[in-house]
Specification:
Distance between the termini: 5 Å
CATH class of the largest domain: Alpha Beta
Number of helices: 12
Strand content: 25-35%
Length: 416
C-alpha cells in the first residue's frame, strides 16, 4: 500500500456544522462537507424544516434562521442514527410536532437513550417500543443535570442542542470522555460551553444566539483509519494522509498502531473551528498483537471495525468492553465475526467484543463476506481481504456510499 491522498470531510463534524448553522443567524459556508449519504440526510431534514441550503460540490451554504419551521411531512433520516438523535434534541425545543423516519436498518436502532433525557426536559416523544419512527412533540423545555449511563457523543449532543434553546443551565455528565465536536462547533458559531472534569462534564446555558460562519471541515479520521490500518498491516507500505482531523478525542488509533508495530508520524498544520488538523504518515514495519481494553473503547468506537481487519494479516486482535457495537448500523460484533470467518479468518464473539486472527497466519479465502448494509463492515472486509491469495467477495459493498463513496476507487490507486 503506497500513496498520498486526502480523505472526505469529517462525517461527525459535517452533521454538527449543518445543524448549528441552521440554528444560527445569517449564512454559513461549510467547505469540504462530507459527501456521504448520512450527512446529506441531515441536509434533507433541515430543508424539510424550512432551511434554505445550496450545494456546490463539497461546499454547502446554509441560510440560518434561528428557529426552524414546522415540517409539511415526515423527516427522513435515511440510515443516519446521528441525524435522528441530534435532530431530536433540536426539535424538542420547537413548538410543534415532527415525525422522524429512517430506513429499515435505522428503524431497528435503539432511541431510548435520547427519549429519556429529552423526556426529563419536558418533551414527549412517541416511538415504536423505543425505536423509530419517532414523533417529537416539541415544547418549552426545562434545564436538567443528566448523568448518562453510557458514554455517547450523540446523546450528549442531543441534550446540548436542546439546552441551547432552553432557559437555564443544562449539564451532561458521562462516565468517560467522548468526542467533543459539538462543544467545539458551538464555540465556533459564537456559543458558550463549559467543560469540566476532563471533558466528562459539559454544561450549556440557554438560550443563546449564534451567528453564521465560514468553516472548513477537516478530513475524516475514521475514514483515514482504514488506510492507516492497511499500511500498518502490510510491511513495506507507506501511506500519507493530508489534512486529517486530529481532534484528541478521535485519534486513539495512532497509539494502537504504534503498539502494533507500525511507524506513525503526525505533522500538525494548525486548526480551524477549534479542530486541529495535519498530515499522518503510516509505514508498515512488523506485525504485532492488538488488545483493546474497555477504557479505550469510547475513543475508538468507529475505528474498531478497521482494527478488526488486522486479523486478516497475521495479527491477533482482542476487543473488550465494546457492547455499543451491537447497536450500530448492524450488530457489528456479530457481523464482523461472521464476515471474517467467511473470509477464512478465525474469529469468535464475546458479549462485549470479539477475538480474531492467529499470530503469523494470514490465510484469507474467497468469502462471500456480508457487509449487512453497513459501510464500515464493507471497508473492514476489504482491508482484511488484501491478505488474500485469490479474489475475495464482499456482499453489500455499495454501502460505502453512506460515508465514503470513493472508497474502492482509492483502494485501487493505493495498492502498490
Amino acid at each position: 500500500m503506497r500513496g498520498r491522498l486526502q480523505v472526505p470531510g469529517d462525517k461527525a463534524i459535517s452533521h454538527r456544522y449543518a445543524i448549528i448553522a441552521a440554528l444560527a443567524s445569517g449564512p454559513s459556508r461549510l467547505s469540504n462537507y462530507a459527501p456521504g449519504a448520512d450527512c446529506h440526510s441531515t441536509l434533507a431534514c433541515l430543508r424539510g424544516l424550512g432551511v434554505n441550503i445550496t450545494e456546490d460540490g463539497t461546499t454547502v451554504t446554509v441560510m440560518g434562521r434561528g428557529r426552524l419551521g414546522s415540517p409539511a411531512g415526515p423527516l427522513d433520516a435515511g440510515n443516519s442514527g446521528t441525524t435522528m438523535r441530534m435532530m431530536s434534541g433540536v426539535l424538542a425545543a420547537h413548538p410543534f410536532s415532527a415525525t422522524m423516519v429512517g430506513d429499515e436498518s435505522l428503524s431497528r436502532r435503539p432511541m431510548r437513550r435520547i427519549i429519556e433525557p429529552l423526556g426529563m426536559m419536558g418533551c414527549r416523544i412517541e416511538s415504536q417500543d423505543g425505536r423509530p419512527p419517532l414523533t417529537i412533540h416539541g415544547t418549552k423545555l426545562k434545564p436538567i443535570l443528566y448523568m448518562s449511563p453510557t458514554p455517547s457523543a450523540q446523546v450528549k449532543s442531543a441534550v446540548l442542542f436542546a439546552g441551547l434553546q432552553t432557559p437555564g443551565t443544562t449539564t451532561v455528565m458521562e462516565p468517560a470522555q467522548t468526542r467533543d465536536h459539538t462543544e467545539q462547533a458551538l464555540k465556533s458559531f459564537g456559543g458558550t460551553v463549559h467543560v469540566e472534569d476532563g471533558g466528562k462534564r459539559v454544561s450549556i446555558e440557554g438560550p443563546q444566539t449564534l451567528s453564521g460562519q465560514h468553516l472548513t471541515v477537516p478530513g475524516d479520521f475514521s475514514s483515514a483509519a482504514f488506510w492507516m490500518v492497511a499500511a500498518a498491516a502490510r510491511p513495506g507500505s507507506r501511506v500519507e494522509l493530508e489534512d486529517v482531523g486530529l481532534n484528541p478525542s478521535r485519534t486513539a488509533l495512532i497509539g494502537v498502531l504504534r503498539r502494533f508495530g507500525a511507524r506513525v508520524t503526525v505533522e500538525p498544520q494548525g486548526e480551524s473551528g477549534g479542530e486541529p488538523r495535519g498530515t499522518i504518515v503510516v509505514e508498515g514495519d512488523r506485525i504485532g498483537r492488538v488488545d483493546i481494553a474497555p477504557d479505550e473503547v469510547p475513543g475508538l468506537i468507529d475505528e474498531l471495525p478497521a482494527i478488526a481487519a488486522l486479523a486478516g494479516h497475521g495479527a491477533e486482535v482482542s476487543v473488550r468492553g465494546a457492547a455499543e457495537l451491537r447497536v450500530k448500523e448492524t450488530d457489528r460484533i456479530a457481523a464482523l465475526v461472521a464476515g471474517l470467518r467467511a473470509l477464512g479468518i478465525a474469529a469468535d464473539e464475546r458479549p462485549d467484543g470479539f477475538v480474531a486472527g492467529e499470530a503469523g497466519r494470514s490465510t484469507v479465502g474467497a468469502g462471500p463476506a456480508d457487509a449487512c448494509g453497513d459501510h464500515r463492515m464493507a471497508m473492514a472486509f476489504a482491508i482484511a481481504a488484501l491478505a488474500g491469495q485469490s479474489p475475495s467477495q464482499i456482499v453489500g459493498a455499495d454501502s460505502v456510499v453512506i460515508s465514503y463513496p470513493g472508497f474502492f476507487d482509492t483502494l485501487g490507486r493505493l495498492v502498490a
